[in-house]
Amino acid sequence: MLFSITFRGGVLLTMMGQTTRSESLFYYFRLEDHVPEDHLLRLIDRRIDFTFVRETLKESYSQTGRPSIDPEVLLRILLIGYLYGITNERRLVEDVGVHLAYRWFTGLGFDQEVPHHSTFSKNRCGRFQESPVFLDLFERVVQQCMQVGLLKGADLSVDSTQIGAKASPDRAISRDQLMEVAKVNRTVREYVEQVERENVVPEPEQTSDTDATKEKAAPKLSRTYRNSPPCKISTTDPDAALSSKRGASEFAYYDNYLIDNQSCIIAGVVATPARLSQEIVAARRMLDRLKERFGLQPISLAADKSYGTGEFLSWLFQRQIAPHIPVLDRKQQTNGFYTQREFTRVPEENAYRCPGGELLSYSGLSRGAQGYVYRAKPSQCASCSHKPACTPTTHRTLTVNWYEDVREHVRAFSQTPEFAASRRARNKIEALFSELRNQIRLRRLRLRGLPRAGEQFLLAATVQNVKRPIRFLNQSKEPRVEMT
Questions:
Q1: Fold topology of 151-194+220-326+414-473
Q2: Domain ranges in the chain?
Q3: Among residues 81, 175, 176, 232, which one has the fewest Cβ atoms lying within 10 Å of its Cβ?
Q4: How far apart are CA 180 and CA 186, in angstroms?
């Protein structure tokens, strides 16, 4: 029974309690008493020092005028949103106002007003944009992971996930319409000005016909490419790239992660437009930043096949990083004809010998195909019995990648147990991307532009990282009891 019924003097009485809504004039109330000791926000407050925010933003504030809102409070509120998947800043401000733990974490008492949601937009376009406050916070958490022994940096993995931009595919224009639309659209005009500032055309390289150049004439890794606009551009977010990776075409960005295979700590994060060519650019940036900022040089790097270009594999070998990456062999598909593997290299003559015994002599460089070109003479192929299985043209042409020696080394290394173990460990990065979408709820960006995308990716990665050292440092230290 939920309650009892009694009769007194013929009157029906119930023992159910009833609370009357009334307010006292004075209350004794402390937020500190109502936040549990094991609450996530309390644990974060113990381990992470946010006072660096004031020092980082010191030059962005004036010495005169009224006192501003504490930037540390703004950063703490943003972290709450990413920790609990609150993607709307209006709702975030409302939740901070009514949630006791949120108020305690931000340091706002009941007599203090929660900042207006427009404050975040104003600071984002001003102080936050001019200072690396989000990058500083991310790297401070990474540094703490190193100090407690979670981040070793020996075996790393790199990958990216596509996050939709706040732009509709219906608002797209072609490259030919760019200058015309820039006259009436400020966003497109600013994008055109930025492209013109960054557009560097390299000087033509002088090629030599000497034997030494023919033998090893691979281009430099640091050459500059022309930053030309893509074929389709969004008028609302020109930095985003049109991608059909998930089926339907959408403007999107790539969230690139560099993680530690053992602890799943995110060691690097970079935002790029959703183009496959940008994945390798982001990987190189993150590895360089890891060594420059933390002095970490990985022993191995695991990635999927899209990273297996000869140029990137050679770049890793130059830095003594073992590439646990499948080799990307686009040129090996020749529609049923002989592939490069059927040809034998003759180093002393700088040539290749075909299955019919004829020599293919060195012809020159192909910068479009990024390789050395070897050709047979039409007279050699005319009477060859292998010609129907070798080439449909008058003579066979063979294009050998500039980095074929490195590619062969990686192919041989891919048969080792270390390679297989690293490939299995690489799958951990997919769990982080799943957490990013389902718990942090970053399925689509709320802000436009590449810098804003980087801000959201940095905050999301910071939240993912901060949970791991918190759990590691606050785990139970009680000794195990042996079972008998």
A1: Nucleotidyltransferase; domain 5 (3.30.420)
A2: 31-131, 151-194+220-326+414-473, 340-401
A3: 176
A4: 12
